[in-house]
C-alpha cells in the first residue's frame, strides 16, 4: 500500500462540476492499494497517517504534532495510479488491486481510519469516479508512505517477470518436443504412438 500525504491549508474533491467533499487545515491523503495488501498493511497505514508529525506545536516548533494532536481534518482519495510501474514510458497498473476488491478494501480503510480518529473529521472522494482534487499544499509538505509488505524491489520485480517469461517459453516448447517425439520411428503396435499428438492438443489449449 502506498500513500502520498500532503499537509494542506484546504482541499476539496469535485465530481462532474459538483463539490462533494472539502476540508480546512489538515491532511490530504492519496491512497494506492496493491493486489498484495492485507488487513495488516491497512492497519499499518492508518497508524502512520494519524501519527505523522507534520504540524507545529503551540510554541511554533515544527514537526511536533500529528493531525490527531491538532484535531484537524483528513481528506482521503483513492489513487490506483500510485501502483504504476513504468515499462519504458507506458504506465502499467497490474500491481493495483482489481476494482471490486479495491473498493471494499478502501471502504474498510476509511472505516478503520474513522474508528481510530473522529468520523466527522475524515472525508473522502468518490471511489472509481473521475475527480478533480483541489489541494492547497501548506509548506509545501509532502510525505510518501509505503507499507513494509507492499514495498516492491525493482530487482525482485525483474526477477519475477523473468520467471514468468521462462514459464511462457516452457509452454511453447511442449508442442515442439512432442513433435520431435512424433517424428521418431515408432512401431504400429506401440500404444504410446498417439500420445504425442494428444499432448500437443492439450498444450495448445493451455492459456
TrEMBL record:
Reaction(s) the record says it catalyses: a D-aminoacyl-tRNA + H2O = a tRNA + a D-alpha-amino acid + H(+); glycyl-tRNA(Ala) + H2O = tRNA(Ala) + glycine + H(+)
GO molecular function annotation: D-tyrosyl-tRNA(Tyr) deacylase activity; tRNA binding
Region (Disordered) location: 148-207
SUPFAM superfamilies: DTD-like
Intracellular or extracellular location(s): Cytoplasm
Biased composition (Basic and acidic residues): 156-167, 178-191
Record EC number: 3.1.1.96
Gene3D superfamilies: D-tyrosyl-tRNA(Tyr) deacylase
Entries under CDD domains matching the protein: Dtyr_deacylase
InterPro entries per record: Daa-tRNA_deacyls_DTD (IPR003732), DTD-like_sf (IPR023509)
Signal peptide: none
Keyword list, A-Z: Cytoplasm, Hydrolase, RNA-binding, tRNA-binding
Pfam families named among the record's database cross-references: Tyr_Deacylase
Major subcellular site: cytoplasm
Ribonucleoprotein recorded as keyword: no
Annotated GO CC locations: cytoplasm
Family note: Belongs to the DTD family.
Protein name: D-aminoacyl-tRNA deacylase
Lineage: Eukaryota, Metazoa, Chordata, Craniata, Vertebrata
Amino acid at each position: 500500500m502506498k500513500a502520498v500525504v500532503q499537509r494542506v491549508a484546504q482541499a476539496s474533491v469535485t465530481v462532474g462540476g459538483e463539490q462533494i467533499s472539502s476540508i480546512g487545515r489538515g491532511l490530504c491523503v492519496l491512497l494506492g492499494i496493491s493486489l498484495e495488501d492485507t488487513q495488516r498493511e491497512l492497519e499499518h497505514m492508518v497508524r502512520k497517517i494519524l501519527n505523522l508529525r507534520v504540524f507545529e506545536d503551540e510554541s511554533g516548533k515544527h514537526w511536533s504534532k500529528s493531525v490527531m494532536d491538532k484535531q484537524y481534518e483528513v481528506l482521503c482519495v483513492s489513487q490506483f495510479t500510485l501502483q504504476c510501474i513504468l515499462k519504458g514510458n507506458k504506465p502499467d497498473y497490474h500491481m493495483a488491486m482489481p476494482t471490486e476488491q479495491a473498493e471494499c478494501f478502501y471502504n474498510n480503510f476509511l472505516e478503520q481510519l474513522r474508528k481510530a480518529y473522529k468520523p466527522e473529521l475524515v472525508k473522502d472522494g468518490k471511489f472509481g469516479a473521475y475527480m478533480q482534487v483541489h489541494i492547497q499544499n501548506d509548506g509545501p509538505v509532502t510525505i510518501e508512505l509505503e507499507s513494509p509488505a507492499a514495498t516492491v524491489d525493482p530487482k525482485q520485480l525483474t526477477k519475477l517477470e523473468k520467471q514468468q517469461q521462462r514459464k511462457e517459453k516452457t509452454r511453447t516448447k511442449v508442442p515442439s518436443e512432442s513433435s520431435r517425439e512424433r517424428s521418431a520411428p515408432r512401431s504400429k503396435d506401440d500404444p504410446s504412438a498417439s500420445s504425442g499428438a494428444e499432448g500437443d492438443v492439450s498444450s495448445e489449449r493451455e492459456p
